[in-house]
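Example 3.2
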Amino acid sequence: MNNILRRLDLNLLVTLDVLLAEQNVTRAAERLYFSQPSVSVHLAKLRDIFGDPLLLPGPRGMRPTARAESLRAPLREALASLERAVAPEEAFDPATAEHTWRIAATDYTESTVLLPALSGLRAAAPRTRIAVLEINPPRLTKQAENGEVDLAFHITSPDDAHFHQQALFSESYVLVGRKDHPRLKRRPALAQFCALEHVIVSPDGGGFAGPTDAALAALGLKRRVVLSVPHFLFVRNVLATTDLVSIQPSRLAKDWPEMRVVAPPLDVPGYEMSMLWPERVHRDPAHRWLRETIAQAV
C-alpha cells in the first residue's frame, strides 16, 4: 500500500471517484472540467497503479470491476473527510456551540476577570462549558501545548513572550483591614504601617515578602508579615476576624464591603493583568470569540 500511495496524487483519486460515480469518461470529464483525453490518461495511470482495469466497456458506458467496487465507498468517505478538513472555517455561532474551554486562573483572576464575564458567556453560549484550573506558571507552556489549557490570566511578563497576549487592565494596591479596625480609622503613617501585623498572599507558597516589602526595603524599612497564605479568599476571612491587615489589589478589595480600604502610606508598584493563549488556538473562531467576550466584559 505504501508503494501505491507514493505513486498516487489527489487528482488521480478525485478522477477515480467521479469515474466510479458516472461510469462514463465523457460525463466524468465534464464534471471535472477536464478534457476527455486527460481523463483517459488518468484512468490509464490508475489501472497501472492498481494493477486492475477498474472500469470495463459496457452496454451503457462502463462497468466497474470488483476491485473498483471495493474502492467506491472508502474512497468517497476519504475524499469527503478531506474536503471537510480543508474547507473554509465556518463562522462561530455561540448560540449553538458545544465547546469546552479550559482556563487557568488564580482565585484573584477568577473574581476580577472571569466572574464579570461569566453571565455574558452563559447567556450568549448556553451549551458551552468552562473548566477553571489552578494556574501553575512553571507548567503553563507545556499545558498549553498539550491542550490542557486554552487560556490563562497572568501578570504581564517578558517570560510569557512565547504566548499571544492581550492586556486586560492595570492594577494598583490598597491597604485593607476589618471595618472597625482601630488602626485604620485614617490612613496610617509609614511607621504605624510597619508596626501593624500583615498577612500576605504567596501563590508559590510560604513566601513572606512581596512588592510592598521591596518598596519598603528601598526606604530602609521593614514591616511585620506574620501570616503567609496561598489564596485571596482566606485572606478575606482572616481580615474579617482579626486585627491583621493586608496590601491587596484594588479590584478585589472593592468587592469586600465589610472591609475598610485606605491608601497605603507608600507607593507600591502595581502590575498589568494579561490574557495569554497559545498559537494552536490563535486563529480559531471559537477561541477568538471567547477572548473578545472576556475582554469586553473586563
